[in-house]
Amino acid sequence: MKTNKHKKFGKVILAGALVSTSILFSAQALANNELNQEEREKLLVEINEEGDDINHYETIEKLRNYIEDNVNDGSFASLHIDREEALTGTVVLSFTKELSPTIKDEIKALVEEPAKVSFRVVDYTEDELIEKQREINLAAFEETVFEAKGISVYHTSTDVINNRINIGISPFNAETAQVIYDYFDSNMIKVEEGQQVRTLMDVATEEAEATEEASDTSKEVTTISLDDAATDDKPGFFSKILNWLTQWFK
């Protein structure tokens, strides 16, 4: 005969099973892009709370170890997670040359659901991009070679997804962009519009200066003529003195 305690324990197990099953089916819907943005975000929180590896850390570690041991010809370029098709993501492995079918099959065997893996061929390795970015930073920020041409370089970044170095400049137009392309003479770069970075301190300082300037321009200046000062008994003289002092100490 089952006691109340046993019945309660059974209900807890059943409830846990139902929750896990619900998350499992929801995760499949997430992978198939069947949920709206709010539902997707809520589900990702639930998946993380359940302890699932939504960023595929374990899978990525296996892939890195395999590539290090079996693809040691320098063709491995980079790795990133593509969440365009589904928030669960696809691990994208980039190489500078095509892998053999055998290597691809062995890599796929390391990947477990919900993780997926895809392969692509790119022009440059991540290390090559980073080295090029160092060269660009030296010319743009230390040697400031573009200042004389009236071009400000505001940022550079290594874009692993697009396999390029982004260079943000101002002013940005066809002519100024061509100056950058000609100088580096490289297909590794992409010139784009850049904007000067403003820190919170910069914003606070500008707001304080604007407030002070507005206060100065709005303050009414009261003057007292010599005639007023010479005639102590002139009506309103002391009122003007008091008003002037009041305005001064506001």
Key structural traits:
Alpha-Beta Plaits, 250 residues, signal, single chain, alpha/beta, three-stranded mixed sheet, 9 helices, GMP Synthetase, Chain A, domain 3
Describe the structure.
The structure is a single chain. The chain has 250 residues and is an alpha/beta fold. The protein has helices at residues 4-31, 37-49, 57-70, 101-108, 126-142, 174-184, 200-218, 226-230, 237-248, and strands at residues 76-82, 90-95, 116-121, 152-159, 164-170, 189-193. It has three domains: 4-49, no CATH class; 57-121, Alpha-Beta Plaits (2-Layer Sandwich); 126-193, GMP Synthetase, Chain A, domain 3 (2-Layer Sandwich), CATH 3.30.300. Strands 1-2-3 form a three-stranded mixed β-sheet, with helices on one face. A three-stranded mixed β-sheet has the order 4-5-6, covered by helices on one side. The model is unreliable at 5-25 (pLDDT under 50).
